Structures are given as C-alpha cells and as structure tokens.
Amino acid sequence: MAVIRGLRRRRRAAASGDEPARPRRPRRRIRLENDQRKAQLLALGQQAFSERTYDEVSIDDIARAAGISKGLLYHYFPTKRDLYLAGLRATAADLIERTTAAASPELPPLDRMRAGLDAYLDHVSRQARPFVALMRGGIGSDPEVVGVIEGVRATYVERFLDNAEGTPLAGLALANRPLLRIAVRGWIGFVEAASLEWLSRKDVERTTLRDLLVDALLASLRLGAAAGPAPS
Questions:
Q1: Which residues of 153-186 are buried (b: 16+ CB within 10 A; e: fewer)?
Q2: Number of domains composing the chain
Q3: Cα–Cα distance between 131 and 124 in angstroms, integer?
Q4: Same domain membership, residue 99 and residue 49
Q5: CATH number of the structural domain spanning residue 62
Q6: Over 161-173, what HEC string results?
Q7: Within 52-127, where are the H helices?
Q8: 201-230 pLDDT, tens per residue?
C-alpha cells in the first residue's frame, strides 16, 4: 500500500507542477566505424548534390546532418570537391551496374537493348538535376570529373562490343572495322544529348524515346558494318 500511495503522490505532484524537472541527458554522438561513417557521408553528399548545385552545397550542412564536426568530415573527404567526386564515381558505378543487370544476356538482342536503355532512362530521370548539371558543365572542366564521365562511356562501348552476339556486330572482325567502334561511341553521345533534351521538356513518352534510341543504334551499326575494313 505504501508503494501505491507513493506513486499517487508523485502523480499529483507531477500534475500540479511541483515535481522537480528531471535533468535532460546530453545527446550522445553516435559513433560509427570508419567505413560506416564514410558511407554515411557519401550518401549525404550524393543527396545534397542531387538536390542543389555544386556551389549551393554546404559542407557545414552535411556535417550537421551527420551529427559530426566539420573537421571530422574533412578527415574522410579533405575538400568538397573530393566528396563530389566520390559521389560521382559511386553514381557512375551504380548506373553501369543497373544497366548491365537489366540487359540480361538471356534476353533476345533487341530486348537487351530496350532493357538497358529503360534502366538508363530511369536512372537519369531520378537523378535529373545532377545529371543535367554534370553533362552541361558539372564543376567546370575538372579533368577528374571528365575522366569519370569518359570512363562510363568507354565501359559502355567495351561491354557493348563484348556482348555483340545476336546483334549486327556478330561475326564481324572488329579489329578491322574501327568504324563500328566509332558508330557505337557516337551513338552514346547521341543518347546523352537526347536524354538532356527529354529531361528539359518531358514532352515525349519514355518508351517512345527508348525506341528512337534503339532505331538510331541499329542504323548506326548497319552503316558501320557496311563499310569496308580498315586499310592495312
């Protein structure tokens, strides 16, 4: 009974405001392992750069969102440019992984092309603002930024040529037909330019754009394959 009476007294005191307020515990900083912290900062940076331009992103805001000091953030990424580049490389790797996974070798050739382009257009649509900013200048003529973009393009060319079975490239001696490589590389540039135009207007259905890109690729490959071999 004494316990019950004590509980009642505390409840009445709390209701009347006479009970002394309990001191608040200071908010504890969550300690993460190095890899976890770096992954957290990378994710926060990718989100920030996807929502705002490079110049608008503040390192102070990212550190605050992570619950750490700016000095600790600089331990992982010495400059804002380093954080941007790390995010760009991660985005590029994700793009290649998604488009490659979508274009399963088990699919018929045309379906592989369509699936890969669908994955690509889905990705650039989700990342519209940073994609447009990157393709139209990014953070200027930074050679490392250009290197990341060129790396994605080169990867697509190589993977396309390596998986040519069932396409107009099958059975061709690619070493003697450099025009085919030029055709594929030029088509990738066409895809990027068409994507930028589509994102700026969105007045064409995605499937319509995808089919246009497939038709453009097939036309380029036919022209490249019809050309004679390179001179010896």
A1: eebbbeebeebbeebbbeebeeeebebbbebbbe
A2: 2
A3: 6
A4: no
A5: 1.10.10.60
A6: HHCCCCCCCCCCC
A7: 59-66, 70-76, 80-102, 109-126
A8: 889 999 999 999 999 988 988 887 776 555
